[in-house]
Amino acid sequence: MTLPPPRADVVLMDGYHSPRLDVKVRLNVNEAPEGPPAAFLEALEREIHNSGLNRYPDLSATALREAIGAHHGVRREEVFCANGSNEVLQSLLLAFGGPGRAVAVFSPTYALHSHIAAITGTAVLEAERDEEFLIHAEAIEQVMARGAAMLAESDPRGAFGTRRAVNPVITFCCSPNNPTGRLEPDDRLDAVLARAPGLVVADEAYGQFAPRSALDRRGEHPELVVVRTFSKTWSLAGLRLGYAVADPAVIEAMERVTLPYHLDAIKQAAGRLALGFADEMRARVSRLVHERGRLCAELSALGCSVVPSDANFILFSPPVSDAKAVWSSLVEHSVLVRDVSSWPRLAGYLRVTVGTPEEDDAFLAGLRAAL
Ligand code: PMP
To answer: Which residues are CB-contacts of 3 (< 8 A; sequence separation ≥ 6)?
Structure first.
């Protein structure tokens, strides 16, 4: 028997996955450079001993959602948790996307927004960011025009009787944006909120490294969904935990599409306990922000063109024509950064995660040697 071919429409963009090479300094996937605090690990160990793993976990992750709610000053009903913010995004698309529906993205941006949309059969309407990698005022009009064109192509004679445009049911606003590091200025976010016809998802995976958050705008905008993760600031990328803060009706819709018991008991406990270490995490964030400033200055002094960053990584273009050769030379110096030079609009660019001062020094030494 011949096996059926898998779907051809869900292949992730070429070169998206960063190679896992055996190097001393890993600055390629925006992880926290240090592990979580020892006191957190001890508390988690005690919790695991007492947690009765023979039983299924709390189906609605009540204590975890309450703890996240308390952390942000919102109610538990406004919080949805999943296995990493990627799964939060997937739940959003399962709940609101699907055939006949579309989302809007502003490129270059986080590739998983379009990829998960494709997996769920949701069309992607794309507009480019401006030359500073920000969402320009006409971007929403551009995606709406694409939605109208898409309908005209798929249904030229209006066979379904209506000539409605395919408007985005979700508009993704990744801020600070990956891979550029840019925080969307308030007036740009305002323009998106004023014009987008559906939900606006502020993907704030790097939100804690920035001076402002869309969380403060939810009061005036019930359509705003803010997505966050424990992977970066909380030093828990290996644990896989992320969450959304949104209107209870949006949260309920997301809950309807998740599998029962998708969040295991250990993860629920770990997330709740981690929030007890908020002061340590804030101190780590300020150290990283300080280190980011130092790295930016050093990169500029080396002649690199540096994109201003409000995240825990920096997009930069070395002052040579072959960025890929610089990447390879860094690998030879046992430093791994992200080669984004083959991505649309990013020819000549590399992305480096802010690490410990020692890791950053090793990166700068490798870069000096490469140049
Ligand atoms: N959103 C953005 C913008 C990201 O960069 C990432 C991680 N690379 C994620 C979401 C997913 O993070 P996680 O699934 O680890 O929470």
So the answer is: none
Q: For 94-116, how does the pLDDT look when each residue is reduced to its tens digit (9 = 90+)?
A: 999 999 899 999 999 999 999 99
- The domain locations on the chain are 8-36+279-370, 38-276
Candidates 332, 285, 336; CA nearest to 312 is 285
Cβ(210)–Cβ(311) below 8 Å: yes
Task: For strands 123-128 and 168-174, give the pairing.
Answer: unpaired
CA distance linking residue 175 with residue 217, whole number of Å: 14
Please tell me whether residue 331 adopts helix, strand or coil conformation: helix
Q: What is the DSSP letter of 322?
A: -
- Could you tell me the two tokens for 363? 């990166």
Give CATH for domain 8-36+279-370.
3.90.1150.10
Inter-axis angle of helices 111-119 and 85-96, nearest 10: 40
| pLDDT over 90 at 243, yes or no | yes
Mutate to test the pocket of ligand 1, among 27, 83, 90, 110 (most ligand atoms within 8 A of CB): 110
Atom of ligand 1 nearest to the CA of 230: 16
Tokens of 82: 């999943």
- Nearest of 160, 162, 214, 164 to residue 192 by alpha carbon: 214
pLDDT score of 263 more than 80:
yes
How many residues in total does the chain contain? 371
Q: Distance, CA 262 to ligand 1 centroid (Å)?
A: 18
For a ligand 1 pocket test, name from 18, 81, 86 the mutation site with the most ligand atoms within 8 angstroms of its C-beta.
86
**pTM of the predicted structure, to 2 decimals:** 0.95
CA-nearest residue for atom 6, ligand 1, is: 205
Residues 164-186 as b/e (b if ≥16 CB within 10 A, e otherwise) read ebbbbbbbbbbbbbbbbbbbbee
Whether residue 145 is predicted with pLDDT greater than 50 in this model: the reply is: yes
Q: What CATH fold (topology level) applies to the domain 38-276?
A: Aspartate Aminotransferase; domain 2 (3.40.640)
What's 181-208 look like in SS3?
CCCCCHHHHHHHHHHCCCEEEEECCCHH
Is the shortest distance between the CB of 205 and ligand 1 below 6 Å? yes
